[in-house]
Each structure stands twice: as structure tokens, then as C-alpha cells.
Design brief:
The complex is a heterodimer of chains A (about 290) and B (about 425).
Chain A: H1 2-32, H2 39-57, H3 61-87, H4 94-117, E1 132-135, E2 138-141, H5 142-164, H6 166-176, H7 178-183, H8 188-213, H9 220-235, H10 240-262, H11 266-280
Antiparallel strand pairs in A: 1-2
Chain B: H1 7-33, E1 37-43, H2 50-69, E2 73-75, E3 78-80, E4 82-88, H3 93-105, E5 111-113, H4 118-130, E6 135-137, E7 153-155, H5 160-175, E8 181-187, H6 190-204, E9 209-216, H7 223-232, E10 236-240, H8 243-255, E11 262-264, H9 272-278, E12 286-289, E13 298-299, E14 303-304, H10 305-316, H11 322-341, H12 349-360, E15 363-366, E16 369-372, E17 389-394, E18 397-402
Parallel strand pairs in B: 1-4, 1-5, 5-6, 6-7, 8-9, 8-10, 10-11
Antiparallel strand pairs in B: 2-3, 12-17, 13-14, 15-16, 17-18
Helix pairs in contact in B: 2-11, 3-4, 5-6, 8-9, 11-12
Classes of the chains: A mainly alpha (about 290), B alpha/beta (about 425).
Chain lengths: ~290, ~425
């Protein structure tokens, strides 16, 4: 029973990490209709930014996360118009061109990280590193708990932004129909750039927490790109609400399968479920995907 | 659209091309008749594995510099300097194979020194066999390299399944009745899986009870694995993986309030990055090394293991690990085989086959330890002589703790902070 409770907690906390990783990715897909291969790259760079801020300035990741958000939102805001330009170009298959663009961006990030930080893994220490709460037989790592809470806060924040602000209305309008939104006076290019900036800021902030929980090296990006993609597929591509359920479901599944069937089969089962979802319910768990 | 080439351009090209051929010809002939031993190094000088690749290069280069200070390798009373040629594998097996072909065809090397990773070694191995150029691999550790029974490749470092298995035996003997149970986990990928299998086989050869053997995917979250280990509570936990997995494992274990009495991992533990990144949390973690500077080995070129370590430090600014040592010792193997062969370079194909046979018959003592290559079995042409040293991290330093002839400190058991 003790192991079962710990397994459930482990699963929920893994889910929190997956949610924080995917929420921005999902938002940008909804608006720009771009599957951003660079999502793992933003996670990695966020982790490295936190590493540098700890090493060079002694700033704890739980403070630097706000700086990282601001910095990467600015960078994303600058790159957003480029992606918008590629995505709306008149050349054939702009969707594939955008995919190739983000893939190139990802390779650039990885190469840059190798050059700057070498291949060695970097451990990002925080005041919460190694700290945990003990509730009866269950141990809850504080870093993972904070990632979970952050995921919830980000989800709520994104919902408030989307459904309680004029900017959110513009974002939803662009997501529904870019041309019509433009005709209604929405500056589609600017909204797209802001959304991309928001996405990179959120994802790099998730990277800060992920780097403190695990570690960061130039190769981790591809792992997080895959996970973000899997959560997004289960949630339904473009469905922000579905991310919460899909992230928790995948986290629990990974934990339960690892504990009771075998860790070796955990990702196999997760991928198997994803294939089934694609076949049976391609619009995701809430049926709201594209 | 086809472009016309003017007669003038054609004539210019012909004259330039002919001149290049005429001017280049003497150097080609000189290349073939030079009284030097041409050694090709195929390793990862760029890409993901460039750090390790450059370690191998340092090891090979240090040997070349030292032997050239004496005038070169002595063959039948005359000394022949060694000349090093490099091929960058770019951390990719296919590029490694291309680099090996270039070294053999263009640079006409007499012998190859092998790559850093097993993946690149597996790609280069058929090239060395095809052109019958002996290759001495100072680094590759996967047992898969030796399974095809490579006729021209020889490995200095015992395969990881041997070192991990032997290290568990060494550890169990040192702990005696204090440790009764063990669990082995590892990443489900070639090198790490073989390490974990070696640990498991080692446990089965001791009196330890194996409570768990489990592999996990490279991308898996480690909290479920650690929760299960915590529930099992074995005395010794052995982990097969790479440095990043080790860091994640230690972090995840600490965050779940779990530290086993003994935690043994493989070679990544001895890397400066592992220790510096984990800081206090690395304290007490056990690792495996094939060679340390404190071992009582010696040879005529480098002196003792300690002398080699100091020489390497003076040359490169860092103390060598066993990869560098294995690579430098590769040169000693070539020296010994060439001396026994007794034929002056350059070596033609027939002589290279004889050289490979001479290398296969190697049985020498070096600063790196004894070297003799297996003549049959699953570790064909792998140097299976060295006994692994169990090391422990103590206050940021790697201290050999077992076996007794290599020990420089007490084995901390249970490790600091064990739950």
C-alpha cells in the first residue's frame, strides 16, 4: 500500500513536469499552427540560463525563473515574426517549411549549447534541492511539488489570459480563423509574435525547474521535444485544457507501469496508448484538438 | 544548363593539373619510403564525444612524444620515429569509418590507434580488417566489439561486462558479511545494459542475494525505480549508465530521502564533472576504474603508474584517467610487437599481417598493468588481464578503496548519509 501511494504521488508529480513542458507548445500550435521542434531546445536553454545564473551570480533558480521568463519571452517575441513569415509564406507547403525552420532552430540551439557548455551534464542547485515533505509513508520531493504547482499556476494563468482579457480574445480569434481575425482589426502578426514569446518564456521557465530536478546537457532537448509532442497528441493538438488531463494521465501511466509491470516497458506502454488515441480519438482526450 | 568551357580555360586547367601531379609526385614517393612508423589515430575530435576523444588523443600523443624523445621504436638495433596522423570521427561511426579509409589510403599508415567510443570502433573495425591494418584500441569498452572476433583489432581496456562484474566481486570480498543483498538497475541501451549485466553476473558469482535486476529506458523518470529500491532496501545498489544518468539517479534518490549503504556506478563517477556537479551528494559513491596512479605497475618508458600520472599532468595540465593511460599503453604494445617482428618500416600488407600476429602474442607488464589479449571466447583480442579498482568519492576526491593492493583509503560503508 505504501508503495502504491508513493507510485501515485510520483505519477502526479511527473505529470506536473509534463504539463509545464507542454502548455506553451500547445498554445503556440493553436495560434501559429506550427509544431515547434525547438520546444526541447527552449527547455534546455532555460536550464542552462538557470545554471549560469546560479554559477555566475548566485541567483537561486526560484528567483531566476522570473528573469528567465522575461529574457526568453523577449527572444521568442523576436523570433515569432520570422516563424509567422515562414508559416504564412506563399511558397508550397508553408506548414512543412515552418517545421523545418523550427528543426533548424533546434539544431542551432543544440550546437550552441555544445559549444558553450560542452557535453557534460550540469546540475542546477536550488534551496529546495534534496528537500522533501514526508506525509506518512509517502515522500514528496519539494522540487517536483513546486514544478507541479507551477504547472497548475501556468494553466490557470493561460486560461485567465485567454478567457478574461482582450488580448486573449484576439488570440482565440486568431486561433479560430486568422483571416477573419485580421479583417476584424486584429494585428495577427503581432498577436502571433506575442504568443510565441509567451510560449518560449513559459517553456524556458519549465526548463529551469526541470534542470533543478534532473540535470541539463545539450542532448536533453530531443527528449523533451518528444514528451511535449506526446502530451500534445493525447491532449489533442491545440487544446490547452486537454494538456492538464493528458499530462497527469501520462505521468500516472508511466509511474504505475514502471512500478508494477516493469520500468523497461513504461515508455512502450505510453507510446502504445498514444497510438491508440491517434487511431480512436485523434482530437484528444477532450475532443477539442485540431 | 550546360556551360561552355573556353579553350584558354581548358589549357590553363591542364597545365595546372599536370604541374600539380609532377610537383606532388616526389612527396608521394617520399611518403612511402620514409623511415618512420606511420600511426593513424581515428577518434572523436569534434561532436558530442569530443571531450573523451581528445582524452584518447592525449594518451596516444604522450606515448608518441616520449618514444620519439628516445629516437623512436627500436627494431633490430635501429630506432624508427613514429609520425602521428589524425582522422576526426566527428563522434559518428560512419565518419569514423571514412576517416580510417583516408588514413590508410592517403596517409598510408602502418598501424591504427582506435577510437574513443565503441560505436565508432565497431564501424572502423571492418575497415582495419579489409585493409589488414592492425588497430590497437585504447578506449572501446563494449563487449560487442569483441564478439565478431576481430582479427586486426586489439582492445586495451577490459570490456565493461568484465570490469563491472569483477568490481562487484572485489567489493563483496572487501565488505565480507557486512553486505548480504544487492540490486542492479541500468539504462536499457547498449553500453549501459552491458554494464548492468556485468554487475548482475558479478553479484551471482558472490554470496550476495540479488533482490532486483531491472532496466529502464534512457528517457524514463527515475522516481519509480528509486521508490522500488527504497522498498527493497538492498545493501548494495549497482547502476549501469552514463554520467548524466548517475547525476539524475543521485538527485532523484536524495529527493526521495533514499541513500543506500553502498552505491556503485561505472566509470562516469571518476569524471571531474560528476564530482563537481553533485558536490556533497557525490560523497561516498563508489565507482570502477581499470587503472589508478597508485597501482604498483611500471615499465621502461613511462616508469611507474605514478610517474606516468605526473608526466601526463606536466604535459596536459590534468591528471590522466584510465582512458588516457590505456591509450598511452597502446603505444607500448606496438613498441613490443614491432620489436619482436624485427622488420623495418614501411610495412607492406604481408608484414602488417605478421604484425597483427605479433600483437596478438603480447604478454607484457606496463605502467598501466599487465597486457595480454584473449585468444578465444567472447572477449577475443580484448586485454582481460587488468583487475578493476573500486574507487570511492571522499570529499571531492577519487580514492581507490579496493582491492587491498590498490587501496589508498578505507572503504566507507555504509556511505555517508545512508538511510
Amino acid at each position: 500500500m505504501d508503495l502504491f501511494l508513493q507510485t501515485i504521488i510520483n505519477g502526479v508529480l511527473i505529470g506536473g513536469i509534463l504539463i509545464s513542458l507542454t502548455i506553451g507548445f500547445q498554445l503556440t500550435f493553436g495560434v501559429l499552427h506550427v509544431i515547434d521542434f525547438a520546444v526541447g531546445g527552449w527547455v534546455m536553454l532555460g536550464g542552462y540560463a538557470a545554471y549560469w545564473l546560479v554559477e555566475l551570480a548566485g541567483i537561486d533558480p526560484f528567483i531566476s525563473i522570473f528573469l528567465v521568463f522575461a529574457l526568453f519571452a523577449l527572444i521568442g517575441g523576436a523570433i515569432g515574426p520570422l516563424i509567422y513569415h515562414v508559416r504564412t509564406s506563399r511558397y508550397a507547403r508553408p506548414d512543412l517549411m515552418a517545421l523545418a525552420f523550427t528543426f533548424g532552430l533546434f539544431l542551432l540551439m543544440r550546437g550552441g549549447a555544445l559549444w558553450l557548455w560542452s557535453y557534460n551534464s550540469r546540475n542546477v542547485e536550488s534551496v529546495f534541492s534534496g528537500e522533501f515533505l514526508t506525509l506518512g509513508p509517502v515522500t514528496i520531493p519539494l522540487l517536483r511539488l513546486s514544478a507541479f504547482l507551477m504547472a497548475i499556476v501556468i494553466c490557470l494563468g493561460v486560461f485567465v489570459l485567454l478567457y478574461r482579457t482582450r488580448f486573449g480574445m484576439a488570440v482565440r480569434a486568431v486561433a479560430q480563423n486568422r483571416d477573419h481575425a485580421g479583417l476584424m482589426g486584429v494585428n495577427v502578426k503581432r498577436v502571433s509574435a506575442y504568443v510565441y514569446g509567451l510560449y518560449t518564456g513559459i517553456t524556458a521557465s519549465a526548463g529551469v525547474l526541470i534542470a533543478t530536478i534532473y540535470s541539463v546537457n545539450p542532448s536533453v532537448g530531443i527528449r523533451y521535444t518528444l514528451f511535449a509532442f506526446f502530451v500534445a497528441v493525447l491532449a489533442g493538438l491545440g487544446s490547452v485544457g486537454g494538456v492538464l488531463i493528458a499530462g497527469l494521465a501520462l505521468g500516472l501511466m508511466e509511474s504505475i507501469v514502471s512500478t508494477y509491470i516493469g520500468t523497461r516497458y513504461s515508455l512502450l506502454v505510453v507510446f502504445g496508448v498514444l497510438f491508440l488515441v491517434l487511431l480512436v480519438a485523434p482530437k484528444g482526450v477532450l475532443g477539442r484538438g485540431i | 544548363m550546360a556551360r561552355k568551357i573556353s579553350r584558354r580555360a581548358l589549357l590553363q586547367g591542364t597545365v595546372l593539373g599536370s604541374s600539380a601531379m609532377v610537383l606532388g609526385a616526389p612527396s608521394v614517393f617520399a611518403q612511402a619510403s620514409e623511415k618512420v612508423i606511420r600511426c593513424g589515430v581515428v577518434t572523436s575530435l569534434s561532436g558530442d564525444n569530443r571531450f573523451g576523444g581528445n582524452l584518447t588523443r592525449r594518451g596516444y600523443d604522450l606515448w608518441a612524444e616520449e618514444i620519439n624523445k628516445l629516437g623512436g621504436i627500436e627494431i633490430a638495433g635501429e630506432r624508427y620515429p613514429v609520425k602521428m596522423f589524425y582522422g576526426d570521427a566527428q563522434s559518428r561511426p560512419a565518419s569514423g569509418a571514412d576517416a580510417a579509409v583516408r588514413l590508410i589510403i592517403q596517409d598510408k599508415v602502418d598501424v591504427l590507434f582506435g577510437p574513443y567510443t565503441s560505436g565508432v570502433t565497431l564501424a572502423v573495425q571492418p575497415i582495419s580488417a579489409k585493409y589488414q591494418v592492425p588497430m590497437i584500441s585504447g578506449s572501446a569498452e563494449s563487449p560487442n566489439v569483441w564478439l565478431p572476433k576481430p582479427a586486426f583489432n586489439f582492445g586495451m581496456i577490459p570490456a565493461v561486462d568484465l570490469t563491472s562484474g569483477d568490481s562487484i566481486k572485489v567489493l563483496a570480498e572487501s565488505l565480507g558479511s557486512k553486505a548480504k543483498t544487492a540490486a542492479v538497475v541500468g539504462v536499457d541501451e547498449p553500453f549501459s545494459k552491458e554494464t548492468a549485466e556485468g554487475f548482475r553476473n558479478g553479484v551471482q558469482k558472490t554470496n550476495l542475494e540479488l533482490l532486483r535486476y531491472e532496466l529502464f529506458p534512457a528517457n524514463a523518470d527515475l522516481t519509480p525505480v528509486i521508490s522500488k529500491l527504497k522498498a527493497d532496501n538492498p545493501d548494495i545498489v549497482a547502476v549501469g549508465g552514463h554520467e548524466s544518468v548517475f547525476i539524475n539517479f543521485v538527485n532523484a534518490a536524495v529527493s526521495l530521502d533514499y541513500r543506500p549503504k553502498a552505491l556503485i556506478m561505472h566509470y562516469g563517477v571518476t569524471s571531474a564533472a560528476f564530482i563537481s556537479q553533485l558536490g556533497e551528494k557525490a560523497n561516498g559513491v563508489l565507482g570502477v576504474s581499470v587503472w589508478t596512479a597508485g597501482l604498483p605497475y611500471r615499465d621502461d618508458l613511462f616508469g611507474t603508474a605514478s610517474d606516468y600520472s605526473e608526466l601526463s599532468f606536466a604535459r596536459w595540465g590534468t591528471h590522466p584517467d584510465y582512458t588516457e593511460a590505456g591509450c598511452s599503453a597502446s603505444g607500448l604494445v606496438l613498441q613490443d610487437a614491432a620489436r619482436r617482428l624485427g622488420k623495418a618500416p614501411p610495412w607492406d600488407q604481408k608484414t602488417r599481417v605478421e604484425l597483427a600476429k605479433a600483437i596478438a602474442d603480447t604478454d607484457i607488464e606496463t605502467f598501466y598493468g599487465p597486457v595480454a589479449f584473449a585468444k578465444d571466447g567472447d572477449h577475443f583480442h580484448n586485454n582481460i588481464k587488468p583487475v578493476p579498482v573500486v574507487v570511492q568519492i571522499k570529499d571531492g576526491k577519487v580514492v581507490p578503496v579496493a582491492p587491498s593492493n590498490a587501496s589508498e583509503g578505507d572503504l566507507l560503508y555504509p556511505m555517508p548519509g545512508a538511510t
